[in-house]
């Protein structure tokens, strides 16, 4: 392998001691190390290969992942990739983002990198701290009414002069209640819709909404 390719990997993993150790072991660049460290590095390098100037993690036959190999990247690169995936593939939470990335890359402390990317997302910040915290939780919920989420959907004015809809969804069951409105969404219409659900079923443990004026206002 050419020296520039080796230098590139050293630069890429300069803050990743484990990957550096694996690279040096695979390229036999650690011959000057103590015998104990030498054997430890060889053992650590099992399950890795270097091809086309990149370090790859190969399947060990035990993982449920379908990819034969995935590229190893630094934590800084993982944050950038998680941020890009979050923007392009939907502003979903940690679990779904991790599933998507694990089919493409292997990175140390991937959960931490994903959380960093989500917390830096300007669009998610606009929904407030409750929404940001919910992105850190597992995708599923344990039972109905553990979490209800709500938002308004504007529609072209139709029969009966209805042009707005309050949508409230139970995250566990994915069941959606819709309340058609002839007016724009307000605190009053939000409370009326939520009261209908509470009186017909039960009160939710958590009610999540964005920071829109129909939710966050003086009323």
UniProtKB/TrEMBL annotation:
Annotated InterPro entries: Integrase_cat-core (IPR001584), RNaseH-like_sf (IPR012337), RNaseH_sf (IPR036397)
Keyword RNA-binding found: yes
UniProt-listed Gene3D superfamilies: Ribonuclease H-like superfamily/Ribonuclease H
Keywords, ordered alphabetically: RNA-binding
Highest taxon of source: Eukaryota
Gene Ontology molecular function: any one: RNA binding
GO cellular component, one term: nucleus
Gene Ontology annotations of biological process type: DNA integration
Domain Integrase catalytic stretches: 140-219
Entry protein name: Integrase catalytic domain-containing protein
